[in-house]
Amino acid sequence: MVGGPISRAAAGPLDLPRSIAPRSSLLWPASSFSARPCPQETCPSVKNILLLDSEGKRVAVKYYSDDWPTLSAKLAFEKSVFAKTQKANAGTEAEIVMFDGQIVVYKFIQDLHFFVTGGEEENELILASVLQGFSDAVERLLKNMVDKRTALENLDLILLCLDEIVDGGIVLETGGREIAEKVSGHGLEGASSAEQTLVNALTQAREHLAKSLLM
Description:
42% helix, two-stranded antiparallel ribbon, 8 strands
């Protein structure tokens, strides 16, 4: 496992939200996870990544664990973790809380709430680096217009971000710039005119859906 776990005795009880570490110490090199293959049981992993709005409603979510086997279980977890973290004075710096036997790291940017969940044995700094990489990549792709409306209008890019960061729960990449560049590479470069027409139609449909959700 990359890095050593934070001393919980020194940091205080995890059932209370707390800050993790300065931003500069959260970013692992982009090659930390992808360059050295490791057995799945020892690779850094996460159980879910959530992007919720300021009311706790879904914007984009991905689950990589069977801990929440049904949609109702997933929605209940999202509602509970949102309520739990709303009580804290969280901001743009990462915070951490132990919730329902899981470690949850989170941060808020305007009306978007970013969450990464890992098992209680997982390294907290690695979870924080995943959170930082995700939020950094979203900021880059949304050109610093990080809000619900812009996120919904670019939902396909955000979902591609999640695919670049984690595969089957295993952490692949944590560098925000690298993630954003890979996602941008899935664009229209080299696409045929037919493909461009299809993508444009899908983009218009996506924007129409986003507007209807915000009404």
